[in-house]
Amino acid sequence: MNHNFYIIDDDKGIRKVLKNIIDQYNLGDVVGEAEDGIKAIEEMKVLKPHIVLVDLLLPGMDGIAIVSAIREAGIRTNFIMISQVISKEMVSKAYTKGIEFYIHKPINVIEVVSVIHKVKEKMRMQEVIHSFERAIHSINVLKEYTGEKEIQVVSDKDRIKKILSQLGILGEAGSNDIVEMLLLLLAQDEGTRGRLLTQKISDLYEMLNQRYRDAYGIVMNIAAIEQRIRRAINKALENLANLGIEDYSNDIFVKYSNSLFDFKEIRKQMDYIRNKSNYGGKISVKKFIEGLLVELKIDRENIA
Fold first, then answer.
1. Burial class (CB in 10 A: 0-12, 13-18, 19+), 235
2. pLDDT at 5 (0 to 100)
3. Which end of the chain is more exposed for a tag (fewer CB within 10 A), N or C?
4. Where is the signal peptide, in residue numbers (predicted)?
């Protein structure tokens, strides 16, 4: 697959350097470039590039605002942030808004090529997963068409995706990582699973990375896996808080606000959304994963 790139930087020289790297290393085609966010957003809505390299600090509209606007417009693309800024807070905010990787200026050719290859690996992994899902869907449609009857079996993957859908995060990039992590844990016996959940969360990320290597032949970046998962869970926290504000007795809010999160963090997020606080709620990846395992167990027992 030939990937299309879009470059956003107010420095014409930087745009030229990035374009030359993409051309020289046959990474894909640069379909457009811009020096400001307004032009970039309008063009990207039409061009729908696979990968966007965007500067953090731009006149008028910064890179984070551009990422947010494209996400809100429903355009699925992969963002690589480029900047001289080294502030951990700014970098963290950029990841939260939806970037995949961060490249520091001055531009280093090896780093640019490496990061782009990692983004491509992530895209390939998602396509493999989607192709499996499309194949399964096609089989089910064929069975329906031919009138073949069989007992419906709900897989663990379907159960996980149902919960993520209820939380409003099935479309998030990190949802695939959450599904794969849960399937990895469910494949273990109860004793091993319990021991794994007492270990550092970084150990689970490493195991997930190993799963990607073994199952799909893809080497992922552990930091990127962590950021995607945290971004998806943060989105779930935000969605639940909004549900609670609209209807405190909402079934999904009641069901998941305590099992997947610390309820006081949900309350903090609700206060933040209502502008009653300067700080939102915090997440615990481990509590979220443990809570999902409990919900899956309950669902299994109910079906049985």
1. buried
2. 95
3. C
4. none
Alpha-carbon torsion (96, 97, 100, 102), positive or negative: negative
Locus of tokens 């606080």:
277
How much is the pLDDT for 152?
46
To 10 degrees, what angle do helices 201-216 and 109-146 make? 70
* Whether the Cβ atoms of residue 91 and residue 101 lie closer than 8 Å to each other: no
Taking the alpha carbons of 183, 188, 190, 192 in that order, is the dihedral positive or negative? negative
Peptide bond just before 106 cis, omega within 30 deg: yes
Q: What is the pTM of this model?
A: 0.56
| Phi, psi dihedrals of residue 258, rounded to the nearest 5° | -100, -35
Q: Mind listing the domains of the chain with CATH numbers?
A: 4-119 (3.40.50.2300), 156-303 (no CATH)
pLDDT of 37 reads 87
> 218-261 pLDDT, tens per residue?
777 888 889 899 999 999 999 999 988 988 888 889 889 888 99
Three-state secondary structure along the chain? Answer: CCCEEEEECCCHHHHHHHHHHHHHCCCCEEEEEECCHHHHHHHHHHHCCCEEEEECCCCCCCHHHHHHHHHHCCCCCEEEEEECCCCHHHHHHHHHHCEEEEEECCCCHHHHHHHHHHHHHHHHHHHHHHHHHHHHHHHHHHHHHHCCCCCCCCCHHHHHHHHHHHCCCCCCHHHHHHHHHHHHHHCCCHHHHHHHHHCCHHHHHHHHHHHHHHHHCCCCCHHHHHHHHHHHHHHHHHHHHHHHHHCCCCHHHHHHCCCCCCHHHHHHHHHHHCCCCCCCCCCCHHHHHHHHHHHHHHHHHHHC
